[in-house]
Amino acid sequence: MSKKTNHKNRTGFFASVAGRVRKAADFFRNPNVQFVMGLLCAALAIFLCSSFVSFFSTGGSDQTVLEATAPVAGDAVAAGADAAVTEEKVGNTSGLSGAFVANYLINGCFGWASVLMLPLLVIYAVRLMRMYRVKVLKWTYYTLFSMAWLSLLFALIFGDGLGNSFVSPGGANGNFLRDFLDKSVGIVGTVLLLLVSLIVFMITVSRNTVVWLRNSLRFGAPDEEENTRRKQNEAINEDYTEEFVVEDEEPEELEDEVVPAVNDIDFELVSGDDEASVDDETAGFVEVDVDDAGDDETVVEADDVDSPAVDEAELAARFDAMSKNIGAVSTGGGTLSMEVEQAGGDEDMGGDMLRPINPKDELSYYKPPTLDLLDEYEQAAHSIDKDEQAANANKIVEVLKNFGIDISSIKATVGPTITLYEITPAPGVRISKIRNLEDDIAMSLSALCIRIVAPIPGKGTIGIEVPNAHKQIVPMASLLNSRKYKETDMALPLALGKTISNEVYMVDMAKMPHLLVAGATGMGKSVGLNAIITSLLYKMHPAYLKFVMVDPKMVELSLYGVLEKHFLAKLEGEDEPIITDVHKVVRTLKSLCVEMDNRYKLLQLASVRSVKEYNEKFLNKELLPTKGHRFMPYIVVIIDEYGDLMMTAGREVEQPIARIAQKARAVGIHMIIATQRPTTNIITGTIKANFPARMAFRVISVIDSRTILDRSGANQLQGRGDMLFLAGNDPVRVQCALVETKEVERVCAHIAKQQGYQRAYILPEPDEGGDYSAEGSSRGDISSDKLDPLFADAARLVVQAQSGSTSLIQRTLEIGFNRAGRIMDQLCKTGIVGEQVGSKPRQVLCADEADLEFRLKSLL
Side-chain half-sphere of 581: how many Cα atoms within 13 Å? Predict the structure, then answer.
């Protein structure tokens, strides 16, 4: 027990330390905190600049104070303490602290090279304040190397100082390295070390250094073949530069211009700045942009181009290949421009001619939610010990023996909610006999209910699921912090909960592709939806995912309304991002059908079969936006309380949902519908056929369980998040993760306070005249020869009664129901009655008989 206790104490200590470290890291990631840190760096840079400048002018007179208060070089702490009590003043404009800091950094560290700390602090400041994108680690490496190298060089050249100067040019660092190397390798070795280290540093800064050195060390004049190749290259340069112009544009505008396809791509010879690095093979390329014509155009002459020294034969071959590509560029009414810059390297290009589009650029500073926003739910460890497991196993064996059933083995697997006892029956025992003893085993174990899985899929055993006396909560944070979730490559990962064996259970929404959620009131259905949404919010960037949320109850999904400019999609002109009105739901579903059809047209033009392949082509600039191509984010439609929509809108809702469920998988549109009444009139055969994935919480009757799962089992669950997930042949029992309202509020607030898009993702206008029935008929004008002979009589009857009822036509005209229904459809198509809304009679659109007669004359 003591070892277990010590192990738990150590585990708890490390977990506490890790939590504090995460909180500290999250604190320093806060943009406001980083801005304040940037201000401090800028202030420190100004302070050091003043100290250095004043030190070189007044440092000599201050040496008496410095030596008296801190005789040991570099002892800045002791110096500050002593100087605080001295009565003698220093001449440094930054006071005592400035004098001591300047003396320590210059004489005690890197000498004259210490002034390079000033630009480094400025770089830190602008990066922390997010004024510019600067690679801090790279510039830190540049600065530290330069300071160390220059301090050694100054110490080697100037020695300990110039005359009687109080300044040590190389500082303590340079003097130490000089003395150490002088004893080890002598003056010649020290000079060689300086040269070699400088060359290595230049190579790390720019790979063109090797090319420059190779050509600089080449002796002798080039032969005739090389001269011929060089003249050919110059001729090619002149031909291209005479044809193309360079437009004066800002870099940001060039980045926003999307130029896809290999033949329409940017070939860029990147500039040789400090942040650049480019391969030898990429030198000599030119940049060809497709842009609109500008007012100021400058022709680039061949003589103005400073070509890098590269292999001319290879360059000629590349120019020849480029000429074929340039001939295939479609300018689209714009001006084709060529830009030739000095050889170097743009680090963002990485030496590649193709720079893929990044959808995250518009929200490049977006930070996903952190785990500290979720609760850990510290709970007592009520684990089932070996004695309790053995007692339950003995009771199961005893009950089976009482009914003449022998078993050869039994073992237990403890989960968060239930314990699974796997039994292996003796040869000759029928499985059905064990299945029929379900109530008897439950009574012997004093359990509310048990569930028998006979047999367990993939095993030769029978499972008896027994509820735990003390159920464990599964925090959402434990799933999102798991290795399985962090390293997943799923397109739309859903972390749902933990299985009986305490393993994280995850599914890919993109492969399901649609999900049906059902469960009685209070059994965890809304919490399950929150877990689904939370797992997507933690993994996906707003550029890759959009939600369409329908909430007839108006309270379940309203918390996500603040994500409108990040993750939500809606119709243009709608005020509320969460849809609650039934008529708006129908319009939104029809709009999604239009979006689906538009996406399929784009997939056809791109000759691809899925949205994943399409986006890969688009991001690699193989698809041209001028031809209508665009990046397609995943769209997840979440409908809570689908039963209420079916009662009020009926077939108007079911038909577009069925159409989306049948076709929308390939274009990245997925649906999740939830209901607390899984009856056959709500979950119809059309819905069940197109929603292969089911998530069933506890239901009241076995009939409801068979409606959603096509088998019993959901009626035997424990409730409070206990569920069966069906995505294949057999359901998996999972304890759903708990996400409370306060956690959802914190996650949404974290996302909402960040920069978002200017507006929500806008869905296309719906086809109001479209009919999304299974027959695929379309609304519109109908010819008179197709009208029923009783059409006019039925129209007069409906207008007189001001009630668009099919049963009224059936009874009055004494016809069958099918014929009366067809006449009602014709009345709707001709605009005499309106759309059907649930089980209510249709609205009559003709005010009186005079209006009707006018319409009948135009029809007949």
Answer: 8
User: Quick one: pLDDT at residue 248?
Assistant: 38
What tokens were used for 91? 């001449």
Separation between Cα atoms, residue 257 and residue 237, nearest integer Å: 25
Per-residue DSSP letter, 699: -
168 CB neighbour count, 10 Å cutoff: 26
Where do the H-state alpha helices sit in 283-385? 312-327
| Rounded CA separation 13/567 (Å) | 38
**Residue 310 pLDDT exceeds 60:** no
Q: Is 414 helix (H, G, I), strand (E, B) or coil?
A: strand
* Residue keyed to tokens 């059309």: 686
pLDDT tier at 7 (50, 70, 90 boundaries)? low
What per-residue string of b and e applies to 821-838 under the rule 16 or more CB within 10 Å gives b?
eebbbbbbbbebbeebbe
What are the distances in angstroms from CA 533 to CA 166, 358, 641, 737?
67, 24, 16, 12
Say how many CA atoms lie within 13 Å of 498 toward its Cβ: 23
Q: What does the pLDDT look like over 784-805, one tens digit per residue?
A: 667 888 888 899 898 888 888 8
Q: State the burial class of residue 650 (Cβ atoms within 10 Å of its Cβ: 0-12, 13-18, 19+).
A: middle
525 burial type by CB count under 10 A (0-12 exposed, 13-18 middle, 19+ buried): buried
Report which of 201, 227, 360, 206 is spatially closest to residue 275, judged by C-alpha positions.
206
DSSP string, 588-634: HHHHHHHHHHHHHHHHHHHT-SSHHHHHHHHHTT-S-GGGT-----E
Q: Which pLDDT band, with edges at 50, 70 and 90, does 335 fall under?
A: very low
Residue 842 to residue 807: CA distance in whole angstroms:
12
Helix, strand, coil percentages (3-state) for the chain, rounded to 5, are 50, 10, 40
DSSP-derived letter for residue 843 is P
Percent with pLDDT over 70 in the chain:
74
Of the candidates 345, 751, 775, the one whose C-alpha atom is nearest the C-alpha of residue 559 is: 751
CB 373 within 8 A of CB 746: yes
Classified as helix, coil or strand, 339 is: strand
Region of 269 on the Ramachandran plot (φ > 0 left; ψ -120 to 50 alpha; else beta):
beta
Cβ-contact 728, 533 below 8 angstroms: no
| 681 class by beta-carbon count within 10 Å (0-12 exposed, 13-18 middle, 19+ buried) | exposed
For all residues of the chain together, what is the average pLDDT? 76
The mean pLDDT value for 377-395 works out to 70
Distance CA 555, CA 644 (A): 14
pLDDT digits (tens, 9 = 90+) for 568-612: 999 988 888 999 888 889 999 999 999 999 999 999 999 999 999
Helix (H, G, I), strand (E, B) or coil at 347: coil
> Counting beta carbons within 10 angstroms of the beta carbon of residue 44, is it exposed (0 to 12), middle (13 to 18) or buried (19 or more)?
middle
Question: Nearest CA to 663 among 652, 671, 651?
Answer: 671
Would you say 329 and 264 are in contact if contact means Cβ atoms under 8 Å apart? yes
26 has pLDDT over 80: no
Distance in Å from the first CA to the final CA of the chain: 94
For 444-455, write each residue's pLDDT tens digit: 887 777 888 877
Sort 746 into a burial class: Cβ within 10 Å, 0-12 / 13-18 / 19+: middle
In order of 41, 53, 322, 622, the CA distances from 126 in angstroms are: 9, 23, 40, 36
Average of pLDDT values for 191-204? 86
Indicate whether 848 pLDDT > 70: yes
User: CA-to-CA distance for 563 and 756, rounded, in angstroms?
Assistant: 9
Read off the pLDDT of residues 254-273 as tens digits, 9 standing for 90 and up.
333 333 333 333 333 333 33
Residue 539's pLDDT is 92
- Unique residue bearing structure tokens 């709608």: 574
